[in-house]
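Milestone 3.1: sequence recovery, worked example.
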């Protein structure tokens, strides 16, 4: 298995699409910085006469960076404080992290099918399902690269762009990133299932965009609410895409445990189904 993982990571870092996707991700991070800078200028300028307290009263109902589309809310970041924790939190809440992770991993997986490479490699490991484990590890590496890019960009922006930006405390950031990692791997397992089943890059990327825009998550919450008569709050906790977007740095231990259970359960269920497909299919 380790040799298969090394092979996939070698392919990833030798692929041009990986660097293109990370460049696009960097551009999206720059959009977050620019949007936050604009919001900071509006809040701090004498001309606008908008205080942070007024911005909070006008724009926010609760402390969350969750959005139902793709993109951040600069005023939310300014209101809660421009620091590294809130900027990273906003990257996850704005769905740009999950969008670029899913597009990158879908392209990586489906390239093996489209070029026929899978026929040469599926027989290498002892068990066929090793290939799915390897892809999950690859997704974890991609997410770590994204976090590194985002953190470096935000540290630079705090030093050179923001008037009120501070690095701030790192307390709660590591547990938050760890929980998000588990949830993202659960989401990746779902897309492994889609790619193994359909072998379609176009479908995988399309579903990735719908997923990142929270269209699938919103539909799932609606079904749980209408069909199974669950309260909206409880239904949202059962949908992994909504849960990962709603998480905040400094979350309670209860939320931490619930999110971990959801991520691990999703990973187990989707990986099991994907492994069944891989093992039964004749490539």
């Amino acid at each position: 298995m380790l040799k298969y993982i090394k092979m996939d990571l070698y392919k990833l870092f030798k692929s041009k699409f990986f660097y293109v996707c990370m460049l696009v991700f960097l551009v999206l991070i720059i959009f977050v910085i620019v949007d936050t800078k604009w919001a900071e200028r509006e809040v701090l300028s004498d001309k606008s006469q908008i205080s942070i307290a007024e911005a909070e009263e006008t724009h926010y109902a609760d402390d969350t960076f969750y959005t139902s589309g793709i993109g951040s809310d600069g005023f939310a970041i300014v209101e809660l404080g421009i620091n590294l924790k809130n900027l990273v939190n906003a990257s996850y809440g704005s769905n740009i992290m999950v969008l670029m992770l899913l597009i990158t991993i879908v392209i990586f997986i489906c390239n093996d099918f489209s070029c026929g490479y899978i026929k040469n490699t599926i027989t290498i490991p002892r068990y066929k399902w090793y290939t799915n484990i390897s892809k999950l590890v690859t997704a974890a590496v991609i997410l770590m690269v994204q976090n590194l890019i985002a953190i470096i960009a935000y540290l630079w922006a705090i030093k050179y762009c923001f008037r009120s930006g501070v690095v701030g405390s790192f307390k709660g950031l590591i547990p938050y990133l760890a929980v998000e990692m588990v949830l993202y791997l659960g989401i990746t397992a779902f897309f492994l299932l889609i790619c193994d089943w359909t072998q379609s890059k176009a479908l995988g990327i399309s579903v990735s965009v719908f997923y990142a825009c929270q269209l699938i998550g919103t539909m799932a919450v609606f079904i749980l609410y209408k069909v199974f008569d669950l309260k909206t709050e409880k239904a949202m906790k059962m949908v992994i895409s909504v849960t990962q977007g709603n998480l905040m740095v400094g979350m309670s231990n209860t939320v931490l445990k619930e999110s971990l259970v959801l991520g691990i359960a999703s990973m187990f269920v989707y990986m099991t189904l994907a492994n069944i497909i891989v093992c039964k299919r004749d490539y």
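The radius of gyration is 20 Å. Residues 46-61 have pLDDT under 50 and may be disordered.
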